[in-house]
Amino acid sequence: MTTVSTRPLTKRQMALVDAYVANGGKLGKAASEAGYAEGDSGRVSAGKAMKTPHVQQYLMQKVAEEFSRVAPMAIHRVAGLASGAKSEYVQLQAAQDLLDRAGFKPIDRSQVQLAGDIKVSIDLG
């Protein structure tokens, strides 16, 4: 069972998450930008803050926003590779990736059948 945190974030926690997402996940740099103490103590405090449920929830929200912002560019790039890459292998991989993401991934299952009789005889006497 998951619960949604209703605890409000402080301005510093919001700034920490915003800087963390903007700089690609560099915690020390984000801590400094958000106003945490310099050095190891600031990084430790920021790390503890990042582990709290309400900060994690805000982080997931910001990451989802970032994904939605860059997704069109990524799709355009993969589609361009599927149609224009010099390597046929790259074209194939890009086309397969597009199909997979569109929901046309092949079924991944294997079927194993065993036929035959198995008899076990234990003679203890």
Binned strand content: under 5%
Report how far the terminal alpha carbons are from each other. 57 Å
CA radius of gyration is: 26 Å
Number of helices: 5
Helical/strand content category = mainly alpha
Number of domains: 1
Characterize the biggest β-sheet: none
**Low-confidence regions:** none
Average pLDDT value? 88
| Helix content bin | 55-70%
- Shape, per Cα inertia axes: flat
Written as H for each helix and E for each strand, in order along the chain, the element string is HHHHH
What's the total count of β strands? 0
List keywords for this structure.
mainly alpha, 125 residues, 0% strand, 61% helix
Q: Can I get a quick summary?
A:
With 125 residues, this protein is mostly helical.
